[in-house]
Design goal:
- The structure holds two protein chains of two kinds.
- By secondary structure, chain A is mainly alpha-helical.
- Chain A has six helices and no strands.
- In chain A, α3 (about 60-90) packs across α4 (about 95-115).
- The longest helix of chain A is centred in the middle third of the chain and has 30 residues, at about 60-90.
- Chain A is elongated, with a radius of gyration of 19 Å.
- Chain B is mainly α.
- Chain B has five helices and two strands, in the order ααββααα.
- In chain B, α1 (about 5-30) crosses α2 (about 35-45) and α1 (about 5-30) runs antiparallel to α3 (about 70-90).
- The longest helix of chain B is centred in the C-terminal third of the chain and has 35 residues, at about 125-160.
- Classes of the chains: A mainly alpha, B mainly alpha.
- At the A-B interface, α3, α4, α5 and α6 of A face α3, α4 and α5 of B.
Chain lengths: ~180, ~170
């Protein structure tokens, strides 16, 4: 019987996608809803991993998915930090301006649509400025990495488990505890 | 009711702790001195996973929750379902419902969010709580059984010293 597919490659691919979704200004707004981008990344990792299985391989187990989710979250945390550093190095304050302009466009769009009240728009602007100000320093980068290294594996694992339940393989190995 | 496993109890305690932090943040903020500092740390931590906009949040003691109404409802719904699970099933590992049960609340939340973004309809605290809460109530039935199963498998593999971690495992 063949061995199970490599988890690292799938975790890196899904982690890189998490990094893009969470690191690119504008796109990262999706994480405002319970880390949805990270959860979807975890879900995607299970889907991608399942695609690599052949009938000759042992069935996917929930413990594989648990480890895959954790690896995906860790890869995502490092990739989002890397992408944020790259954006900062490449664009410097232009990156901030870019992020600010995208967020301003979104806020303006919401304001015009009448879907958010005026005082909430001010609060959104204030939070945007706070987040941009805190991201500049080395301390901001390290503390950001620290927080994402805790949160991303948790949410990616939950997403991976959700993926396991949704894309569940037909054949399943029973737990042998005896 | 089957006796809940250790993995289930630990996971439930962690989720309950997470939910208690959401409530602790506004209570601590309404206090004085060091509790304000603690509250700030909790708000900062949750800021990584939620926009925390005051108008879109529930309030306690005049202060907003650590997360918005939708997220809070999702987390509390998740926690509520977790507590119900041992009563609803004889085995925590065999209660994954059909995918359609997950699709309905997920679709409702998607509609609520997307319609608000395009200005078709304005979501309210009520719709956010309903859509977030219903998804939160449904999610554990998909996530927890395989998670408990995975943790038990890992414990078994560690006990028998055959922990599969990396490629080719």
């Amino acid at each position: 019987m063949e061995e199970k597919p490599n988890k690292i490659r799938v975790a890196l691919v899904a982690g890189a996608l998490i990094g893009v979704v969470s690191g690119v200004p504008g796109l990262n707004l999706i994480n405002c809803c319970c880390c949805a981008g990270v959860v979807l990344g975890g879900l995607l990792s299970t889907y991608l991993y399942l695609q690599e299985f052949t009938p000759q391989m042992p069935a996917l187990e929930s413990s594989d998915v648990l480890i895959l989710g954790i690896m995906t979250g860790v890869a995502g945390a490092f990739s989002v930090t890397t992408i944020e550093i790259f954006i900062r190095l490449l664009f410097g304050s232009i990156g901030d301006e870019f992020a600010r302009s995208i967020l301003e466009q979104i806020i303006g769009y919401l304001e015009e649509g009448g879907s958010v009240p005026a005082d909430m728009v001010d609060e959104m602007r204030e939070q945007m400025e706070q987040s941009l100000a805190g991201a500049d320093s080395l301390f901001g980068i390290v503390s950001g990495l620290f927080i994402t290294l805790i949160l991303y594996p948790i949410f990616a694992t939950l997403g991976a488990m959700l993926g396991y339940a949704v894309f569940k393989p037909k054949r399943q190995q029973p737990l042998q505890t005896s | 009711m089957k006796r809940p496993t250790t993995s289930y109890l630990i996971f439930t305690l962690l989720v309950a702790f997470w939910c208690s932090l959401i409530l602790a943040a506004p209570i601590l903020r309404s206090g004085m001195g060091s509790t304000m500092h603690l509250s700030g740390m909790v708000y900062d931590a949750f800021g990584a996973v939620c926009h925390q906009i005051g108008d879109r949040s529930f309030h306690l003691e005049g202060e907003k929750f650590a997360v918005c109404a939708r997220c809070a409802s999702l987390y509390f719904g998740f926690c509520f379902s977790l507590f119900l699970m041992p009563f609803a099933s004889r085995s925590l590992k065999r209660i994954v419902p059909p995918n359609a049960v997950l699709a309905v609340p997920a679709f409702l939340m998607f509609i609520d969010v997307s319609f608000t973004l395009v200005g078709v309809h304005e979501s309210t605290l009520f719709t956010r709580a309903i859509t977030g809460g219903s998804l939160g109530i449904v999610l554990p039935w998909y996530i927890v059984p395989p998670l408990i199963d995975a943790l038990e498998r890992l414990r078994f593999q560690i006990r028998t010293r055959r922990l599969p971690l990396l490629p080719g495992d």
